[in-house]
Design a protein that fits this description.
The structure holds three protein chains of three kinds.
Chain A lengths: L6 H17 L3 H17 L4 H7 L1 H17 L5 E5 L2 E5 H24 L4 H10 L4 H30 L9 H32 L18 H24 L1
Antiparallel strand pairs in A: 1-2
Helix pairs in contact in A: 1-5, 1-9, 2-5, 4-5, 6-7, 7-8
Chain B lengths: L2 E12 L2 E12 L3 E5 L6 H8 L7 E6 L2 E2 L5 H7 E4 L12 H11 L4 H14 L15 H13 L5 E5 L7 H14 L4 E5 L3 H7 L2 E6 L2 E7 L1
Parallel strand pairs in B: 3-8, 3-9, 6-7, 7-8
Antiparallel strand pairs in B: 1-2, 1-4, 4-5, 9-10
Helix pairs in contact in B: 3-4
Chain C lengths: L5 E9 L8 E8 L4 E5 L6 H8 L2 H4 L4 E8 L2 E2 L5 H4 L3 E4 L12 H11 L4 H14 L15 H13 L5 E5 L7 H16 L3 E6 L10 E6 L2 E4 L6
Helix pairs in contact in C: 4-5, 4-6
The chains are: A mainly alpha, B alpha/beta, C alpha/beta.
C-alpha cells in the first residue's frame, strides 16, 4: 500500500520538508524538520543507506563546507582558541550545525524521490502541468549520471586488469591516469547521447505538442490521507516555529 | 594435467536475479574452450567473475591454485587477459601507440624494450600503419585487434574473449580466426560466443550454459 | 499510381566538397510488402545509406546529398524527422543507444505515446508485440539487467509498437544469439505478411535468408548480389 503512494504526493512531501528546512533558521526547529523527514522517509521505505553510499564523495565536500561555515563566523562567545586567536564561536557552531541539518534534509528529500519509479515521476510532473519535454529531459539527465559512473568504473577495472596497481602508484601518476580515463568516458557518453537522441526522434519524440500516456495517475484514499497528514504536519511545524519566536 | 583455472560451486546474481547456479569447471592452458548458450544464460557473467570484475555470491575460483578472493585486479590481470565485448570499454589512450605502451610505461619498463615489444605487436596485429592514429577513429575490427594486442603485451597465461566476433564482417572474422590459431599454442583460451560456426572451428571443448547451469560439456 | 515504399534516384553522398564520395549514383527501390537485404563489408557505406533512408542524413547529420529519396511517393526532404516516425521505423545496431526507460513496457509505449495513439490501442499493441516476439516474461523487467540480445529484442519491440509501414534493420542481429535471430526472422516474415516493407542491412549474409532480393554495397555503389562474397 505504502509503496503505491502517488508520486505527486511524494513530491508534495518533499516540497514541504525542503522548503521548511530552508525557511527555518533555529536549530531546534531544523532538528524537528529533520526528524519528521527521517520518519517519513522510513514510512515511505526510502533507502537512505544506499543514497549515502552513492554520494559518499560529495559528503566529504559537505563536511568541509560545514567546517568552513563554522570557522568563518566571528560573532558569539569563543569556544576553541589557539593562543589569542578564536577558532570556533558558539554562533559559528550553531550555523555550521544548521547548515548540516539543511544538507541532511535535502538528502532525505532525494531519497524519498528515489522511491518513485521514473515513469511514475515523469507522469506525475506532467499531470502537475509541467511540459513533458522538461520532465523527460530531467529524468534522462538523472539516468545518465549512474551510466557515467558505471563507465568510469569499467574503464578503471580495465586499467587494473592491464596489471597496473593504481592504488600503489604515486599521486602524480595516479592523477595522470585519471585524466586519461576522463576523455574516453566523456567522449563515449557524448556519442551515446547523440545516438540515443536519434533513436528517440525516430520514434516520434516531439512529433506533436501533445502526447498520450498508458499510465494515468489517480489519487487513492491513502493518497488523500497522506496529503492531509502532510498539510497538518507542515502547519504544526510552522505554528511551532511561530511560538518559538 | 596442468589445471589453470578451477571453478567450484559458483553461484552469482545480478540485481537480485540469479544468473549462475552451481558452476563447476576446470580449465587448463593447453585447451581452447568455448562457452556457448542463449542470450541471458550467464556466459558473460561467468567470464567476468573469473576475471574478478564481478564478485560472486558463493563458491570459489582458483587461478593457478590461488583463490581470486585473495588476489587484486592487477594480480588477476597479469594471469588472465579479458577482452570485453565492447572494445571501447578497454581502450583509453588517445593514440594506438600510447594505448599499447600504456601499461608498460607505468610498470617502469625500459624505453627500448617498450619500443621493441610495441612494434612486434603492431606487426602481428597489422596495425603498423595506424601507429599514431587516434584510437577514436578506428573501426570496430581495428579497435578489437588493438585491445587484444594491448592485452597480450601483459603476457597473460590465459585469455577470456567475450563475443569477439560481434560487429565483425566475414573478412575481419576470418582474420581474427587466423590470429587465434596462431595464439592457441602459447596461451589457454576461453571463448564466450554464440557464433556456432566460429566456436566449432576453434574449440577443443565446448561447454553449454542454459539458465545459469552447465547442461553440456563435451570434446569437440 | 502505385508508389514504392522507398525509392532512391541517382543518390550520391559526401560529407563536404573536399571529401570523397561515400555513396555514388545509387538507384534503389523497395516495393510495398517486400523484404530487401543489403550486404556489405565494414566501411562500404552501409550505415550512411541507412541514415539517408530514415532521414537522419541530412536532417541531423549534415552533408552534401545529391539525387532524391522518396517514401510512399513523397519527398523525404519535405518531412520532419519526427513526422517520418509515423511511416519509417529503424532498429539500430546497439541496443544501449536505444533504450531509455528502466521498464520494458514503458519503452514499448514511448513511441506510440509520442504519436498520440489511444492508450488502449497502445496496450493492445504491446500485448500483440510481446506475444509475437515471445518476450512476455520481459515485459516488466528492467532492460538494463537483461542480456544484450534480450535488450535488442526489447528495442525491436519498441519500434514494432509504432506500427509503421516501412521498417529498417541496421545490423540489428549483431548482438543476438541463434534463437533470438530465429525469433526476429520469424517476426520479419510475419511483418511481411501484414504488408510491411522491410529493408535489412547486414554484414552477415546468413541473416538475410528471409530477404526477397539482396544487393551488394561495395565502395559506395550498389549492385545486384550474385553468389558469395569473399
Amino acid at each position: 500500500m505504502i509503496k503505491k503512494i502517488d508520486p505527486r504526493v511524494k513530491l508534495l512531501i518533499v516540497m514541504c520538508i525542503s522548503s521548511l528546512g530552508l525557511a527555518f533558521t533555529r536549530m531546534p526547529m531544523l532538528l524537528a524538520v529533520f526528524l519528521t523527514g527521517m520518519l517519513l522517509s522510513q514510512v515511505l521505505k526510502a533507502d537512505l543507506f544506499m543514497l549515502i553510499k552513492r554520494i559518499r564523495i560529495i559528503l566529504y565536500l559537505f563536511a568541509v563546507l560545514v567546517i568552513i561555515q563554522s570557522i568563518f563566523v566571528r560573532s558569539g562567545d569563543s569556544l576553541i582558541n589557539i593562543g589569542s586567536i578564536t577558532i570556533l564561536t558558539t554562533e559559528g557552531l550553531s550555523r555550521g550545525l544548521a547548515y548540516l541539518m539543511r544538507v541532511l534534509i535535502i538528502l532525505i528529500s532525494g531519497a524519498i524521490i528515489a522511491t518513485c519509479d521514473m515513469r511514475g515521476l515523469i507522469q506525475g510532473l506532467v499531470q502537475m502541468k509541467l511540459p513533458y519535454d522538461f520532465a523527460f529531459m530531467t529524468s534522462i539527465g538523472i539516468k545518465f549520471l549512474p551510466l557515467l559512473m558505471e563507465e568510469l568504473k569499467d574503464t578503471l577495472t580495465a586499467i587494473q586488469l592491464r596489471g597496473i596497481d593504481i592504488k600503489s602508484l604515486p599521486l602524480k601518476e595516479r592523477t595522470e591516469i585519471i585524466s586519461y580515463i576522463f576523455t574516453p568516458v566523456f567522449a563515449g557518453a557524448l556519442t551515446k547521447a547523440k545516438k540515443l537522441s536519434l533513436s528517440v526522434e525516430c520514434r516520434g519524440f516531439r512529433a506533436f505538442d501533445k502526447r498520450t500516456s498508458i499510465l494515468i495517475l489517480k489519487f487513492s484514499p491513502v493518497d488523500y490521507l497522506a496529503i492531509t497528514l502532510t498539510f497538518l504536519l507542515t502547519a504544526t511545524l510552522i505554528a511551532a516555529n511561530q511560538y518559538f519566536i | 594435467m596442468n589445471e589453470f583455472i578451477r571453478i567450484e560451486k559458483l553461484f552469482c546474481s545480478l540485481n537480485k536475479v540469479q544468473v549462475l547456479r552451481n558452476i563447476n569447471i576446470s580449465l587448463n592452458k593447453s585447451e581452447f574452450v568455448s562457452i556457448i548458450g542463449p542470450n541471458g544464460s550467464g556466459k558473460t557473467t561467468l567470464g567476468k567473475v573469473v576475471s574478478g570484475i564481478i564478485k560472486q555470491d558463493s563458491g570459489d575460483v582458483f587461478i593457478d591454485d590461488k583463490n581470486i578472493k585473495d588476489m587484486s585486479l592487477p594480480e588477476i590481470g597479469r594471469k588472465i587477459g579479458y577482452l570485453f565485448q565492447n572494445p571501447d570499454r578497454q581502450i583509453f589512450a588517445p593514440t594506438v601507440y600510447e594505448e599499447l605502451s600504456f601499461a608498460m610505461k607505468y610498470k617502469k619498463t625500459a624505453t627500448d624494450i617498450i619500443e621493441k615489444r610495441v612494434n612486434e605487436i603492431l606487426n602481428i596485429f597489422e596495425l603498423s600503419h595506424l601507429r599514431d592514429a587516434s584510437t577514436y577513429s578506428l573501426s570496430q575490427g581495428e579497435k578489437q585487434r588493438l585491445a587484444l594486442g594491448a592485452m597480450l603485451l601483459n603476457d597473460p597465461e590465459y585469455l577470456i574473449l567475450d563475443e569477439p566476433t560481434t560487429g565483425l564482417d566475414p573478412k575481419r572474422k576470418y582474420e581474427l580466426s587466423k590470429l587465434l590459431d596462431s595464439m592457441v599454442n602459447r596461451v589457454g583460451i576461453l571463448l564466450i560466443s554464440h557464433d556456432k560456426a566460429f566456436v566449432l572451428k576453434h574449440s577443443h571443448r565446448i561447454i553449454e550454459l542454459y539458465d545459469g547451469s552447465i547442461i553440456n560439456d563435451k570434446k569437440n | 499510381m502505385r508508389h514504392y515504399a522507398l525509392e532512391a534516384k541517382n543518390l550520391s553522398f559526401r560529407y563536404n566538397q573536399n571529401s570523397p564520395y561515400i555513396l555514388k549514383n545509387i538507384d534503389f527501390k523497395l516495393q510495398k510488402g517486400e523484404i530487401v537485404g543489403i550486404v556489405g563489408l565494414s566501411g562500404s557505406g552501409k550505415s550512411t545509406l541507412i541514415q539517408i533512408m530514415n532521414g537522419v542524413i541530412p536532417k541531423r547529420i549534415p552533408g552534401l546529398l545529391e539525387g532524391s529519396i522518396c517514401f510512399n511517393g513523397e519527398d523525404m526532404a519535405e518531412k520532419d524527422l519526427s513526422c517520418l516516425a509515423k511511416e519509417i521505423g529503424t532498429i539500430f545496431q546497439d541496443p544501449d543507444c536505444q533504450i531509455l526507460f528502466p521498464c520494458a513496457e514503458d519503452e514499448m509505449a514511448f513511441g506510440p505515446e509520442n504519436l498520440c495513439y489511444d492508450p488502449y490501442t497502445i496496450i493492445e499493441r504491446i500485448n500483440s508485440t510481446t506475444k509475437m516476439l515471445a518476450i512476455e516474461p520481459l515485459r516488466y523487467r528492467n532492460p538494463n539487467s537483461v542480456s544484450g540480445g534480450e535488450k535488442q529484442i526489447i528495442a525491436l519491440a519498441s519500434v514494432l509498437t509504432l506500427n509503421v509501414g516501412i521498417m529498417i534493420f541496421d545490423e540489428s542481429m549483431s548482438f543476438i544469439d541463434e534463437r533470438g535471430k530465429g525469433l526476429i526472422k520469424n517476426a520479419i516474415l510475419k511483418l511481411k505478411e501484414q504488408g510491411k516493407s522491410i529493408l535489412m542491412v547486414e554484414h552477415d549474409l546468413s541473416n538475410l535468408e528471409v530477404a526477397d532480393h539482396i544487393f551488394l554495397l561495395k565502395n559506395g555503389t550498389l549492385e545486384a548480389f550474385k553468389g558469395v562474397i569473399e
